[in-house]
UniProtKB/TrEMBL annotation:
Similarity section: Belongs to the EgtB family.
Gene that this polypeptide is encoded by: egtB
Domain Sulfatase-modifying factor enzyme-like residues, every copy: 182-441
Entry annotated with the keyword Nuclease: no
Function: Catalyzes the oxidative sulfurization of hercynine (N-alpha,N-alpha,N-alpha-trimethyl-L-histidine) into hercynyl-gamma-L-glutamyl-L-cysteine sulfoxide, a step in the biosynthesis pathway of ergothioneine.
Keyword annotations of the record: Iron, Metal-binding, Monooxygenase, Oxidoreductase
Name of this protein: Hercynine oxygenase
The organism's taxonomic lineage, starting at the top: Bacteria, Bacillati, Actinomycetota, Actinomycetes, Pseudonocardiales
Residues noted as binding gamma-L-glutamyl-L-cysteine in the record, renumbered to the chain: 96-99, 426, 430
Binding site for Fe cation: 62, 148, 152
Pfam families with a match to the protein in the record: DinB_2, FGE-sulfatase
Length: 449
């Protein structure tokens, strides 16, 4: 394991610069929240577009409620603004399907509430110490709330995808992939590497602590599996061959009559999909999206491969064979830019496979950050030495075999809420999320050198 310390620009900032950085991150998150909620009328804001999701107005007020609890009350020590709504916006007390029946804040009241909370949170930020308390060290609490809001923004984006009606969201097209042909696979050498982090200031508890992991050599797809490749699986009858599916996956596929990725439709002239209200042909060269863990697993078996483990995915994304150290991102330690990855709802779709050569890892693996969340075969659990912080309900209560880990973020994930160590998790049946995958396999004899 390399002894070179993790490199992070936040660690070099003065307290005043940290405050400015946190303010900018919070502002960017709020601009996105406003754009997602202002895009529809009040009737759409309070409507439940799917029982899988909350009404958009619940997400908006929940964002404000969490910000009030942590920044205004805890960090700032201020008097509560709306203690009467704490229970309404506690995600653990009310299932998503039940939230429309609650006495929620209406659109105007919710907007006024989050605005007032933000004003008080900025007041707190001006004077909060940036050291001396773990919650505020390097502006952690402000980073945590930024990430929370951006995560709900991605959830609201998924709600928009489920919404019926005319398109209301618009964005430019992502870049095209360069003409050069990439190799299909990359060999990742075996050996130890540093997984997780100890020094990343805004890393969440499940990303900690850094620890050594020995990962045997494996072969990984250079890019996520594309729609074109997935169509081959469909057309070969893969959804109707039980031998490719796990027992629970096959049972779920049969019970719900799943025959293609969510939002795909078979027409006489080929496969079509609905994307944020736009009906279009399935694009051959884009990563497939809106597939469950079970579907991803079935495809890999059909292809004679498997899903990568979480450790394999992180090694491919972070390991630098020249220095032996783990980077923050595949391309290095600097924050993501538009040249590195498809993030932040900049585009409303995944980019073509290979479209971000500047974001490739030293081993030549592409699009590990952005475009689509990637399923791994690993159950969600804590790392050795895990310690819940600042509350058990962020991670620890979800540990167990019910959830599978996803890595890398999607086109709907903001840069503030993704890094090489970031861990997402969900039920293996989930398809409304912006999830895809890539395949891995063990080396053939002599292939690993």
């Amino acid at each position: 394991m390399s002894t070179i310390p993790e490199q992070n620009p936040l660690l070099e900032l003065s307290p005043q610069d940290l405050r400015a950085h946190a303010a900018a991150a919070l502002t960017r998150a709020r601009e996105r929240s406003v754009a997602l909620t202002d895009a529809v009328d009040d009737e759409d804001l309070v409507r439940q577009h799917s029982k899988l999701m909350s009404p958009l107005v619940w997400d908006l007020a929940h964002i404000g409620s969490q910000e009030e609890l942590w920044l205004v009350r805890d960090v700032g020590g201020r008097e509560p603004l709306r203690p009467d709504i704490d229970d309404l916006y506690d995600a653990f007390q009310h299932a998503r399907a039940d939230r429309p029946a609650l006495p929620l804040l209406g659109p105007a009241e919710a907007r006024a509430y989050v605005k007032e909370v933000r004003e008080k949170a900025f007041d707190v930020l001006e004077t909060a110490p940036m050291e001396g308390r773990r919650l505020t060290e390097s502006a952690f609490a402000f980073g945590m709330i930024t990430q929370h809001e951006q995560q709900h923004d991605e959830t609201m984006l998924a709600t928009h995808q489920l919404r019926k009606g005319e398109p209301v969201l618009h964005a430019p097209e992502p870049p095209r992939a360069p003409a050069r042909k990439l190799p299909a696979e990359v060999l990742v050498p075996g050996g130890r590497f540093t997984m997780g982090t100890t020094a990343e200031p805004w890393a969440l508890d499940n990303e900690r602590p850094a620890h050594e992991v020995d990962v045997p050599a494996f072969v990984l797809d250079t890019t996520p599996v594309t729609c074109g490749a997935y169509v081959e699986f469909l057309e070969s009858g893969g959804y109707h061959e039980q031998r490719f599916w796990s027992e629970p996956g096959w049972a779920y596929r049969q019970e719900h009559d799943i025959v293609a990725p969510r939002f795909w439709h078979r027409e006489p002239d080929g496969w079509w999909r609905t994307r944020f209200g736009v009906r279009e042909r399935v694009p051959e060269n884009e990563p497939v999206v809106h597939v469950s863990y079970y579907e991803a697993e079935a495809y890999t078996r059909w292809a004679g491969k498997r899903l990568p483990t979480e450790a394999e995915w992180e090694k491919a994304a972070r390991y630098d064979p020249e220095s032996g150290r783990s980077r923050r991102f595949p391309w290095g330690d600097e924050e993501p830019t538009a040249e590195h990855a498809n993030l932040g709802q900049r585009h409303l779709r995944a980019a073509e496979a290979g479209a971000y050569p500047a974001g490739a890892s030293p081993l030549g693996v592409h699009q590990l950050i952005g475009d689509v969340w990637e399923w791994t075969s690993t159950d969600f659990h804590g790392y050795p030495g895990f310690s819940a912080f600042p509350y058990r309900e962020y991670s620890e209560v979800f540990f167990g075999p019910e959830y599978k880990i996803l890595r890398g973020g999607s086109f709907g994930t903001d840069a503030a809420a993704i890094r090489g160590t970031f861990r997402n998790w969900d039920y293996p049946i989930r398809r409304q999320i912006f999830s895809g995958f890539r395949c891995a396999r063990d080396p053939r004899p002599g292939e690993a050198g």
